[in-house]
């Protein structure tokens, strides 16, 4: 079948859902992933033909996209901070806003001796934060925690994929009785960073259906009456596991910037900074112990 004819089928089936440009983007990702063909190849060779065997994954992907499965789950991978990451239904798809969090940590410590740095990422998911920090802050000792065993399996694959050494820990930050490994004498962190669940149930109407119906709710949502539970637990943990003058970094709910400032103040953090993301929304907060 002529590849361009399959593209036309994609537009016919998907344009009403996603729009013309988004469908083009999906198709370009898919042909590169499954056929190792760049977009320009389709432009230069409009009559390029593929075999039945080569067609199959493209039509399987089309069926999944019609169900509004995220393209990253369809191909099983994405890019974050210039690095490749595997993703599946057990992990959140890394967001550009989280790249800004990673970039802030790296820019704050890139001129220091990274071999002395001990970093903990809480709620690691795909491992995107921990792995990116380990990749670009060479020789830093990086640990990463998650409550999901399935997510940690993906994170470990991503650490291997990106050739970095990260110590992954299965633990629940909400259960202080389970933190023996984290608070051992050798674990005294210079940096604690986290992108925990922060979307309130009342905000579900703002979430796109492809996210709401596919990405793990465990990693997304918190109860309306206790939206800062993870941040509070991490602040409490940081009281005995973050070094004096160590830094705490959070990605946060855009609507709760003021509450987050007050929370960090209540735990006596200093030099608190609330930062906006590329969309002008309150998204990152940092504080020094």
Could you please describe the fold and organization of this structure?
The chain has 289 residues and is α/β, with parallel strands linked by helices. It has two domains: 3-67; 89-288, 3-Layer(aba) Sandwich (Rossmann fold), CATH 3.40.50. The chain has helices at 3-18, 20-35, 39-44, 52-66, 71-75, 96-109, 128-136, 149-161, 209-212, 229-241, 257-266, and strands spanning 77-80, 83-86, 118-122, 141-146, 166-170, 189-194, 199-200, 221-222, 242-251, 270-276, 282-288. It has a seven-stranded mixed sheet with strand order 5-4-3-6-9-11-10, sandwiched between helices. It has a two-stranded antiparallel ribbon with strand order 1-2. Helix 1 packs parallel to helix 4 (52-66). The longest helix is centred in the first third of the chain and has 16 residues, at 3-18. The radius of gyration is 21 Å and the shape is elongated. The N and C termini lie far apart (62 Å). The mean pLDDT is 91.
Instruction: Give the count of structural domains.
Output: 2
Portion in beta strands: 15-25%
What is the topology, as strand order, of the major beta sheet?
Answer: 5-4-3-6-9-11-10
Helix-and-strand structural type: alpha/beta
Q: Tally of extended strands?
A: 11
CATH class of the largest domain: Alpha Beta
Describe how the helices and strands are arranged.
Elements: H1 3-18, H2 20-35, H3 39-44, H4 52-66, H5 71-75, E1 77-80, E2 83-86, H6 96-109, E3 118-122, H7 128-136, E4 141-146, H8 149-161, E5 166-170, E6 189-194, E7 199-200, H9 209-212, E8 221-222, H10 229-241, E9 242-251, H11 257-266, E10 270-276, E11 282-288
Parallel strand pairs: 3-4, 3-6, 4-5, 6-9, 7-8
Antiparallel strand pairs: 1-2, 9-11, 10-11
Helix pairs in contact: 1-2, 1-4, 2-4, 6-7
């Amino acid at each position: 079948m002529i590849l361009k004819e399959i593209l036309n089928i994609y537009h016919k089936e998907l344009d009403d859902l996603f729009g013309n440009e988004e469908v083009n983007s999906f198709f370009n990702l898919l042909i590169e992933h499954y056929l190792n063909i760049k977009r320009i190849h389709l432009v230069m060779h409009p009559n390029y033909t593929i075999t039945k065997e080569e067609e199959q994954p493209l039509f399987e992907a089309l069926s999944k996209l019609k169900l509004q499965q995220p393209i990253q789950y369809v191909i099983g991978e994405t890019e974050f901070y210039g690095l490749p990451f595997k993703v599946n239904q057990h992990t959140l798809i890394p967001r550009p806003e989280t790249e800004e969090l990673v970039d802030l940590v790296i820019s704050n410590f890139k001129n220091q001796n990274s071999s002395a740095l001990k970093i903990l990422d809480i709620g690691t998911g795909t491992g995107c934060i921990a792995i990116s920090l380990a990749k670009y802050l060479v020789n830093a000792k990086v640990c990463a925690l998650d409550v999901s065993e399935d997510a940690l399996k993906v994170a470990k694959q991503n650490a291997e994929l990106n050739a970095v050494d990260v110590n992954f820990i299965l633990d629940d930050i909400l259960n202080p009785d389970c933190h023996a490994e984290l608070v051992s004498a050798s674990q005294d962190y210079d940096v604690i960073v986290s992108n925990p669940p922060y979307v309130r149930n009342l905000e579900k109407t703002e979430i796109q259906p492809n996210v709401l119906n596919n990405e793990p709710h465990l990693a997304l949502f918190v109860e309306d009456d206790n939206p800062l539970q993870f941040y509070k637990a991490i602040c409490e943990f940081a009281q005995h596991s973050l070094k004096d003058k160590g830094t705490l970094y959070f990605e946060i709910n855009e609507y709760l910037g003021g509450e987050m400032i007050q929370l960090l103040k209540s735990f006596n953090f200093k030099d608190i900074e609330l930062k906006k993301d590329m969309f002008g929304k309150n998204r990152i907060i940092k504080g020094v112990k």
